Amino acid sequence: MCFLVNCLKRLKSSQQWLSRQRADPYVEKAKICNYRCRSAFKLLEMNEKANILFPGQTVVDLGACPGSWTQVAVQKTNADGADSSKPKGKVLAIDKLQIFPIEGATIMSNMDFSTIDAHDKVIKALNGRQVDLVLSDMAPSATGVRELDKDRIIGLCYMAIRFAALVTRIDGNLLFKVWDGKEVPILEMDLQRFYKSIKIMKPKASRSDSSEKFILARGFRGIQKPLENGQWG
């Protein structure tokens, strides 16, 4: 009986998801513009407001699968060399899952960016280039337990912050997704130690019933080191 009830719940959830997809204008727009999913428009909108992507930049996209943010990053940084009159950028896309090739991007599939091995591979792939912008649209698979899911995405956020600290140039930027909750102000305070400005963004392409928002941290200060008198500088 329980099995039947669970099956019916999953069926209802799937039907609701399909109905929402059919009614979502960004889903159709993504198909027309040849983006892999609707999330591309979140990054496009935030970039229009904040101007964080431009030709010649080096960008790392964490948790990139299926690759729509990577597609946008390649276009905006000219990583595919489509415009010979502009500087050519470099885009690295990382994910535990398989990412199908994207022209102009270096794809690093089946790789957990939180590991030391992943860090070494990314640094080698950068070939001496420091990163201008780290992107992360990652979210954990939902467990259905609200507080657990929030804890898991906060964990991903801190992993992204630590990773960015290893590869980002001074004054570089970080943009990542978080779910609204009491942990977010603490996250912002921690970011203020390493970045000059912090801004919360909620693009129109985010669904109205979603608790997601994005944190843009600008102006990386670098990793501060303790001075001889015990102070930080």
Automatic annotation (TrEMBL):
Chain segments annotated as coiled-coil in the UniProt record: none
The name this protein goes by in its record: rRNA methyltransferase 2, mitochondrial
Active site positions, chain numbering:
K177
Domain Ribosomal RNA methyltransferase FtsJ, residue spans: 35-220
Signal sequence span per UniProt?
none
Keyword presence, Ligase: no
Where in the cell is the protein located? Mitochondrion
Give the UniProt keywords, A-Z.
Methyltransferase, Mitochondrion, rRNA processing, S-adenosyl-L-methionine, Transferase, Transit peptide
MF-aspect GO terms: rRNA (uridine-2'-O-)-methyltransferase activity
Stored PANTHER family: RIBOSOMAL RNA METHYLTRANSFERASE, RRNA METHYLTRANSFERASE 2, MITOCHONDRIAL
Q: Name one Pfam family in it.
A: FtsJ
HAMAP family per UniProt: RNA_methyltr_E
Which Gene Ontology cellular-component terms appear in the entry?
mitochondrial matrix
Cite the source lineage: Eukaryota, Metazoa, Ecdysozoa, Arthropoda, Hexapoda
**Which terms under GO biological process does the entry name?**
mitochondrial large ribosomal subunit assembly
Family recorded in the similarity comment: Belongs to the class I-like SAM-binding methyltransferase superfamily. RNA methyltransferase RlmE family.
